[in-house]
Design goal:
Elements: H1 2-21, H2 28-38, H3 50-58, H4 62-65, H5 69-74, E1 76-79, E2 84-86, E3 89-106, E4 112-127, E5 133-137, E6 141-145, H6 159-169
Antiparallel strand pairs: 1-3, 2-3, 3-4, 4-5, 5-6
Length: 170
């Protein structure tokens, strides 16, 4: 009977110890931050997205973008699918990267495959309203770029009629 009682007390002690270890430490700030970083921010509300965002960033000089002449020749611009929140504002995120192919990689069956690495040379944020453009300096700091006219690839409504009006006025 004593052995059963001692085993029962030991089991209760172990359960209590594990329960105490798994209790919430009360650090709610960390939990919010971690959950916020995984949340996808849709860019549907942004005035400028996709190719328009790339064209806008390309309209700046290499010096304004912080790219060397050598990097500017090789760099490609990519728009991230989800937006980004910075200083409580929403942004479209554009990356300047150099894509390098590696053909010496093999898959699990021993077949040669091409793998790619990306060397990011710049990161740019365009606010959803299009009124602010930021270029990344270093690891986390951003500097503001002067906003230019936003190039667009969307068709202008009644473009044919506008062209006819301009022709008849001359």
């Amino acid at each position: 009977m004593k052995k059963v009682l001692i085993c029962f007390i030991c089991i209760i002690c172990v359960v209590c110890a594990l329960a105490a270890c798994s209790k919430d430490s009360g650090n709610k700030e960390v939990a919010k931050t971690e959950a916020g970083t995984t949340q996808e921010i849709k860019t549907d509300e942004a005035k400028i997205t996709e190719s328009d965002a790339i064209n806008l960033i390309k309209s700046y000089s290499n010096e304004e973008l912080g790219l060397s002449e050598e990097d500017a020749k090789e760099v490609s611009f990519l728009v991230k699918k989800s937006g980004m929140e910075y200083n409580k504002k929403l942004y479209v995120n554009v990356i300047a990267t150099i894509k390098t192919a590696h053909e010496d990689t093999t898959d699990k069956d021993g077949n040669k495959v091409t793998s790619y690495t990306f060397d990011n040379k710049g990161e740019y944020l365009i606010s959803f309203d299009g009124k602010q453009i930021l270029a990344k300096n270093g690891d986390s700091d951003y500097r503001e770029l002067k906003v230019k006219a936003v190039p667009t690839t969307t068709a202008v409504a009644n473009a044919d009629e506008t062209a006819k009006e301009e022709t008849t006025k001359k």
